[in-house]
Design brief:
By secondary structure, the chain is α/β, with parallel strands linked by helices. 47% of the residues lie in helices and 13% in strands. Strand 4, helix 5 and strand 5 form a beta-alpha-beta unit. Helix 2 packs across helix 3, helix 3 runs parallel beside helix 4 and helix 4 runs parallel beside helix 5.
């Protein structure tokens, strides 16, 4: 029976290359249970571990779970300490699960503001999983879409300043319809990674808060009212099925289901 279920999953034609999640509602989940905020974050780590197999089962090559935004620095110091302890533990605890499911870990975002111990844990987990092939789990840490664009400008200007790139060459690529997108992509954190096909946000909030501001132009958006710690395998499964059967991606062209 399990083999049959797996066969059916693998034969759903969903064409999702990148599934991104904004895991919102951890603190509200804890508050609803009269628990301190960090308990929500702790449970979120368990939820993530439980969700890992679904993307492998459905052959989705890239998955993003946003862990910490550039705006999250505004949170209370005590909560930040708990969050970064969890991030450090996440890279060690989840490493066993990544190895079990043959998942590669990739961290994106800024690294200059992370503590040495967190940075070391991140780099070690990336190194240990670098040859895994089931799919790539992208975890943005100290990441914001606007900040990514700012850093892309810094990269571009630094290349020009250090004479690794001329102004004329940069302008020619930016003015070329054929080359401009790839040129801009090369300056982002997700170069050579497909743009997200699906972006899911939990907790009922209906905004993207800057996740993949450049890359999300044609992502299909899903918003669930449940908090991330309550997210299940079946929830992801239902979104994959809805994407495959009910979403009509036109990319500015005619409908595929009702061509005129």
């Amino acid at each position: 029976m399990k083999d049959l279920q797996k066969h059916l999953k693998n034969n759903i034609s969903h064409n999702i290359k990148h599934f991104a999640i904004i895991p919102d509602g951890n603190r509200r989940w804890a508050k609803a249970r009269d628990l301190p905020p960090y308990e929500g974050h702790k449970h979120a780590v368990k939820t993530l571990q439980n969700l890992l197999p679904v993307f492998k089962d459905y052959n989705i090559p890239y998955v993003t779970i946003w862990a910490f935004s550039t705006e999250n620095w505004k949170r209370p110091e005590k909560e930040l300490q708990v969050l970064f302890n969890l991030l450090k533990q996440l890279t060690t605890k989840i490493d066993k699960h990544l190895q079990k499911h043959n998942i590669r870990l990739k961290i994106i975002g800024r690294r200059d503001r992370l503590s040495p111990d967190v940075l070391q844990a991140i780099e070690q987990a990336e190194k240990q999983t670098q040859n895994n092939t089931a799919y790539t789990l992208i975890i943005p840490i100290d990441y914001g879409g606007q900040d990514e664009i700012r850093r892309a400008f810094v990269k571009l200007l630094t290349k020009i300043k250090t004479k690794k790139l001329t102004i004329d060459s940069a302008l020619n690529q930016l003015l070329s319809d054929a080359k401009s997108r790839d040129f801009i992509d090369s300056l982002t954190d997700t170069y050579n990674i497909p743009y997200p096909d699906v972006i899911l946000r939990t907790s009922g909030e209906m905004r993207l808060s800057g996740l993949y501001s450049w890359q999300n132009a044609y992502a299909e958006l899903f918003f669930l009212k449940k908090y991330f710690p309550d997210l299940t395998y079946s929830d992801i499964e239902n979104i994959i099925k809805e994407f495959a059967t009910k979403r009509d991606r036109r990319f500015g062209g005619n409908s595929k289901t009702n061509k005129k």
